[in-house]
Amino acid sequence: MRDPSVSRNTASQLSPARRAADLRRLRAERFDVLVIGGGVTGAGAALDAASRGLKVALVEARDYAAGTSSRSSKLIHGGLRYLEQLEFGLVHEALTERGLLATRLAPHLVRPVPILVPLPAGRGPAALPGRIWRRCYYGTGVAAYDAFAGIFGGGRGMPLHRHLTRESTRRIFPSLRADAVAGSIRYYDGQVDDARLVVTLVRTAASLGVAVATSARVVGLIRQAREVTGVRIRDMEAPAGSPDAEFEVSARTVIAATGVWSDDMSELLGDVGVRRGLRVRASKGVHLVVPRSAITGEAGLILRTPTSVLFVLPWGGHWIIGTTDTDWRLDRAHPAASARDIEYLLDQVNRVLDRPLTTDDIEGVYAGLRPLLSGEAESTSKLSREHAVAEPMLGLLLVAGGKYTTYRVMAADVVDRAAHRLGNVRPSRTAELPLLGADGYAALWRDRADLARRHGVPAGVVEHLLERYGNLTTDLLAMIDAEPLLGSPLAGAPEYLAAEVVYAAQAEGALHLDDVLTRRTRISIETPHRGVESAEQAAELMGRVLGWDASVRAREVEHYLARVAAERQSQRMPDDATADAARLGAPDVRGFAADRGAGADLGGGVGLPG
Question: Per the count of CB atoms within 10 A, which of 35, 201, 249, 299 is most buried?
Answer without folding.
Answer: 35
